[in-house]
Amino acid sequence: MITSRFSKLGFILAAVGSAVGLGNIWKFPYVTGEYGGGAFVLVYLITALFIGVFVLISELVIGKLGRSDAVTMFETLATKHKKLWKYAGFIIIVPLIILAYYSVVIGWIFHYIAISIQGLPQTVEQSKDIFIGLLTTDIQTQLLYHTVVFVLVTAIILQGIKDGIEKINKILMPLLGIILAILLVYSINVDSFSKAFQFMFNPDFTKLSSEAVVVAIGQAFYTLSLGMGIIITYAASLPKDSNVVKSSILISIIDTMVAIVAGLIIFTLLFDKGAESTKGAGLVFISLPSVFYEFGSIGSFLALLFFIAIAFAGITSAISMLEPTVEYFENRFNFSRIKAAMICSIFFYVLGIAALLSNIESYSSVLMIGEKGLFDWLDFVCSTILVPIGGILVVVFIGHYMDKEAVENELIPLMGTALTKFWFFMVRFVIPFALIIVILNETGIFKF
Ligand code: PHE
Ligand code: NA
């Protein structure tokens, strides 16, 4: 049983803190670039609304009715096959695995905060050397920052829901908002802002592929932290009278706005210096630093703000990845919070070190599995296979295996009978089917 509760605002900020992360500021802009700008943004907005909000509602309802750790909730809320459904709760292992390499990436961001202060790379070539050098040769720096993230995240988790998670989000989320606002205002005053705006909102449908649709669905899940038991776990600490529908819409809107604002800022700066929009994962770490340099003395300041913003976004997401397994050990095994936190943290810390080493030239042969290193494998398996599977489990569970009346009692007063029916139809049939397509497509079993 969960006794500690968020405040209403605290819950929204914590959920937004989980949702807003590297997925918004790093991944969204580069997939938008890759899949042709406006058309992708439009598809993404539709999927965020229909799939994102609907699954968010599902996870909030499960948490609110279940009030426990994720594993226990799947067990107690199932109307049949309780013993089997318990295992669905083990999706909480996924965010802990993600955290292993996510922590390493947050570490890179810390390093770039230092670079913004010490001096930015002056050309793209130099920028590339710095980033590739960090990844493939510099164990020390990566290990140092990975350890810093490990200590930070563990320390916050140890403080619990109210004094740890809620408090840090109440500080970092408003600061993140302010920083993004400053960067946006700056960008609006740069000439190429209108070009960036065009790029993101003027859809060129000839560029739209079915693959873009599949990618958009995957991104909607990842960006809203769905299918991993995270929102379910946070929602178990919802205040009693929270409106799960309004909360879901709000969380989704804020997450989407951050992604779009980040995109506008990044594309404005890139276009202004004539840099490429489609640079894959290197967009933030290779293209941007040298672009910031070209902005002169204000550039270092902008870079500093930018990397601090991503660091804040990353830390609050990282905390949310750790909490579900910690609560699981506390609840099911009666472990003290410190013992539970240490077990989970050391797990992600050690796995993160292995992931980091797999990018290092001299170690990569040991940690290669087929074409990819461990780092890339973890990301691939988690975000393209396990997260959609977790999503399927969540919607099938609430759609077919929970007490229908209890779910209706929660939703009908908030959105009426017709919408509730539509929501049921979506979670029962449409969303599971969409997610199966995502998995088939992303694993290459069947390409659309
Ligand atoms: N939603 C986060 C983002 O957009 C990522 C995340 C993944 C958060 C898994 C929690 C768990 O970056
Ligand atoms: Na996100």
UniProtKB/TrEMBL annotation:
Keyword Nucleotidyltransferase part of the UniProt annotation: no
Membrane topology: Multi-pass membrane protein
Compartment(s) of residence: Membrane
UniProt GO cellular component terms: membrane
Domain of life: Bacteria
Annotated transmembrane regions: 37-63, 84-110, 143-161, 173-193, 213-237, 249-271, 291-319, 340-357, 377-401, 422-440
Pfam families for the chain: SNF (PF00209)
The keyword Ligase is assigned to this record: no
Keywords: Membrane, Symport, Transmembrane, Transmembrane helix, Transport
InterPro entries: Na/ntran_symport, SNS_sf, YocR/YhdH-like
Residue ranges that the Swiss-Prot or TrEMBL entry lists as coiled coil: none
Main location: membrane
GO molecular function: symporter activity
Family: Belongs to the sodium:neurotransmitter symporter (SNF) (TC 2.A.22) family.
Protein's name according to its UniProt entry: Transporter
